[in-house]
Amino acid sequence: MELPTFIATVVLVTASGALAPGPLFFATVSHGTRSGAKGGLAFSIGHTLVEFPLVLLLALVFGEFATEIAGEPIVKLSTGIAGGLFLLIFGAMQIRHFLTSKSDNPDSRGITSRNPLLLGLVLTGLNPYFIVWWLAVGSKLVVDALAFASLLGVLLMYISHVWMDYAWLTAVAHLAHVGTKIAGTRWYRAAMTVFGAVLIYFGITFLLSVL
User: Can you state the angle between helices 37-60 and 23-35, rounded to 10 degrees?
Assistant: First the structure.
């Protein structure tokens, strides 16, 4: 496999996962309304702190055992319950803040003032679909990368993937910040309440998928 073909394959295979709306996406939108692009960058860094070690771990076990790990009931149960409960709590706190806040300033402190780097780390680490995706689908990319250029191939594969996370989350956070200034407080409150409900939906989905 030639280098351009290898990179194109990685980008196309991982784009659906990187760009698909999920808990990290909606949390980035919520926080981005206050912090803008720098919030999206912090979310991306937190995401990378979980994702890159996982990719390295997959490289060490050569990928072929990853699917078996993902299929273990205890792995699905523990990640599903932990991730689901966190999303339920996070979403409920967000809705409560925007429904009860007396301030008309979208920059008022609340759930959106939480550490975005830490939230990015937690929302990534407790997302069972993220973990299963890398253990199942991502393991094939790791194996191909090892065959292409050993550990250097794995590094190249990850760089070809992770730039999309940074570009996407930073852009989303920036647009959310700009949109808040344009739309005004009422639309902001309504939108953030909806995003809180979406996080609760993901939490319920995660729990139902393992119970």
Answer: 150
